[in-house]
Design brief:
The chain is of the alpha+beta class and about 250 residues long. The protein has helices at about 5-25, 110-120, 125-135, 145-170, 190-195, 200-205, 225-230, 240-250, and strands at about 40, 50, 60-65, 70-75, 85-90, 95-100, 100-105, 175, 180-185, 210-215, 220. The protein is built from 8 helices and 11 strands. The strands form 4 sheets. The protein has a 5-stranded antiparallel beta sheet. It has a two-stranded antiparallel sheet with strand order 2-3. A two-stranded antiparallel sheet has the order 8-9.
Length: about 250
């Protein structure tokens, strides 16, 4: 091969690899607070358009993902009453975002506002927003309510996950004459296929974990939120319900 062509191909390959790394890095949500300003976190991605100007027709810079940390450096109210925050996302990225898209742990009342959003959410959305609350509002008196909401949402999701996993695993199971279901591969126990079900991955990333009952073939929430509630807030109104939930949780069976 011509040495000149070889150098060009290697150069193009290097550019491709660099662009790939940049693309993958951009998709990783930032967990490090940006410097300057009041810390805030994105909680409603439906409103999280970052814009060049403080109006709803402003040029889109990018849409911020739920859980993204920003620093508030200023604010402005539009003639129609919509409040925009001027925020720093990274050292190179700044813009205007609608006030309702974010909450700040240092702003009075934002814990209640996020709790209201959690109550209005369902399923995985409710779990993610509950986790954001627990990560950032560490001293809020509303934490017992959020812990109980998280436990309820996780157990409801466990029922859905049980049905989904059973359907997905039908392709790797066979029915014997006795009617018993067995995994066709003898390489691993049946319960490990359930515990490796890909549908669990996004919950795992939120640090929400499930156990599996090998007899009933059902997932159950592991009860971590209830245990934290009883440990930290034993006299709260939610504590008694947390005790009931823990007694109802099925123990993990392999």
């Amino acid at each position: 091969m011509n040495p000149h062509r070889l150098i060009i191909r290697l150069f193009l390959l290097l550019i491709f690899l660099l662009l790939t790394v940049v693309s993958l890095t951009a998709k990783i949500p930032s967990t490090k607070p940006p410097a300057g300003g009041r810390l805030a976190v994105v909680v409603d991605e439906r409103l999280s358009a970052l814009r060049r100007t403080s109006d709803l027709n402003g040029r889109l810079v990018r849409r911020l993902g739920r859980g993204r940390l920003v620093a508030i450096n200023g604010w402005r109210t539009t003639p129609d009453g919509v409040v925009f925050f001027f925020v720093t996302v990274t050292t190179r990225t700044r813009g205007w975002i609608q006030r309702e898209a974010v909450v700040s742990p240092t702003h009075p009342g934002d814990d209640q506002r996020l709790l209201d959003l959690i109550k209005a959410s369902q399923g995985f959305d409710q779990i993610v927003r509950s986790c954001i609350f627990l990560d950032h509002f560490r001293h809020s008196p509303l934490r017992p309510q959020v812990l109980l909401l998280l436990a309820s949402a996780a157990e409801a999701e466990a029922a859905k996950l049980s049905r989904e996993a059973a359907r997905r695993l039908d392709s790797v199971r066979r029915v014997e004459p006795t009617g018993r279901l067995n995994i066709t591969s003898a390489a691993a126990p049946e319960f490990t296929y359930f515990m490796n079900y890909s549908g669990l991955d996004r919950y795992n990333r939120q640090r929400v974990y499930f156990t599996f009952d090998a007899i009933t073939k059902r997932f159950h929430y592991d009860g971590a939120a209830c245990r934290e509630l009883l440990r930290r807030y034993p006299t709260s109104p939610e504590a008694e319900e947390a005790r009931k939930r823990l007694t109802q949780l099925a123990p993990p069976e392999n």
